[in-house]
Amino acid sequence: MQKLELLAPAKNLELGKTAINHGADAVYIGANRFGARETAGNSIHDIEKLVKYAHRYYAKVYLTENTVFYENELEQARQLAVDACNIGCDALIIQDMSLLEMNLPPIPLFASTQANNQKSEHIKFLEDVGFERVILARELSLMQISEIAKAVKIDLEFFVHGSLCVSYSGQCYLSQFFTDRSANRGCCAQPCRSTYDLIDKNGKIIAKNKHLLSLKDINLSDYLEDLIKAGISSFKIEGRLKDASYVKNVVAYYRKRLDNFLNENSEYKKASSGATTLMFEPNVDLSFSRGFTNYFIDGKRKKMASQDTAKSTGEKIGTVKFVAHNYFVIESEKSLQNGDGICFFDRHEKLCGTRINTVIGKKIYPLSMENINAGADLFRSYNRLFERSMEQQTSLRSVAAILTFTNNDEKITLQATDEDENSVMLEMPQTGDIAQNAELAANNIIKNLSKKADSIFSFTVNICMNQARFYKISTINEWRRKITEMLLTEREKNYHQKKSKININNIPLNKSHLDYTANIANSLSAQYYRRHGVQTIQNAFEIEKTDENKILMFNKYCIRHELGLCKHGQNEDLFLLNNKQKLRISFDCKHCEMKIMKCEK
Prior knowledge:
This protein is of the alpha/beta class. It has four domains: about 1-165 and about 215-270 and about 280-285, TIM Barrel, CATH 3.20.20.60; about 315-390, Thrombin, subunit H; about 400-495, Nucleotidyltransferase, domain 5 (2-Layer Sandwich), CATH 3.30.420; about 515-600, no CATH class. It has 14 helices and 32 strands. The strands form six sheets. An eight-stranded parallel β-barrel has the order 1-2-3-4-5-6-7-11, surrounded by five helices. A six-stranded antiparallel β-sheet has the order 9-8-30-31-32-29, with no helix packed on it. Strand 2, helix 2 (about 45-55) and strand 3 (about 60-65) form a beta-alpha-beta unit. Helix 4 packs parallel to helix 5 (about 140-150). The longest helix is centred in the last third of the chain and has 22 residues, at about 475-495. It is globular and about 100 Å long. It starts with a strand and ends with a strand. About 40% of the residues are buried. The mean pLDDT is about 95.
């Protein structure tokens, strides 16, 4: 059966455990260096703890080593790969090809989405040089994904939920240009979330003070079956900077949606072990989002920008119907509660917010009435009851196991077998007293052997007693503790950490020249590409230290289309203004793309 993997973000050890507890089949996490989220770094010691925890459920841990490396960092990058393998990480997610020129331990390599994985020819090349998985570009449609899947045998991963970069991943240099902070080095300043004025070549203002490059968040929960049929086997949730509430809710939501599919399609199975019992009803509308888009998944262009704000607006509640001196009334089927946070856009399209003090019937009494006006759409940015519930235990993940009890005059035998067919046996001398009531004695054994306690196992107990005997509860508890420890040890021993060694080859890349967009920042990366037939190589943007004649951002997203200005054959340049910086936008209507570059004064 084909395995389907739900892949979740892990900001740290605790959130990694949280993701696994709520149904993740795998998590991705960064170390203290070389991760694409500089502020989400972790010690090797903590990552090792997460690996041990995940492997109990046969879930996997992938280390993100997906920045570009400078020359003086190559040995540190190699050592991190060695450490990752030694502590049991299941794969490295990488962008910089210098790692393929090093003597690495046998750990699988995944090609990060920063490697610009858009076309089947490139993905076939990555497969041929030894990658075990490719994380596809977010801009692809179902049709494009299907074409890629037919051309390769490699494992394909795709983002299904979370924040979107407006640029093709790995092809954005705007942060480096503005702030000297490189997105390809894990320290993006997110200039795409800033406000801009849009003007034409004559200086006419088309849009003023808008978040023109800030996209809504992707949500492909309604496309999971389509993605599976197209060839995706790993479904990735973005969010290594998100909090526990977000991780719990979003992971649980997608776990539930995937399980519904698995229950109806027996030719597929989940990629890890155990069942997750949720103690709440997940709803992604209640977690951080800028509104949702399906991006380009269906091959169509729709409104996908969050132009009025780059912040989370939350769940839409309704429309303000009436405004009084100190309260307002809304049209809504949903109810607000004391302590909820709300936000709305005022008459000047500025996002405003306040807290709710009191709700009496349909009357809402907020902390402040400032800027609230009739007709405004109202959003709940903070759901007090939901967030409080997220502070409690919200899930229970357990591995199914059968525990068989037998006895005779001489001994007691316990055999435990889990859902992955790991099996252990415990034998003890007979110490029980003959029972007067056989049924009561049997129920006593079943009840106490079935206790969950702190175990990951959920035991189904079978009894085959040749003699009905009564045993002390403390004795039965000790049996359960011992057999549980034995079974857990057996599971950990039998966990299969896949080993994969890159076999160096000279398969041609079929490119004679690579420019700065290949993000080559060190000699080993250049050596790798020369070995594959590239003759001339330009240094990475971060190395060149010049922005002259360079495109700063490559986009599938189009401002013209977003603003309803897309007209065939009319693709004159437009300009973005931000804090006296002027950027030029050129449009490639043939390929339906746009590019942003520095505007020479």
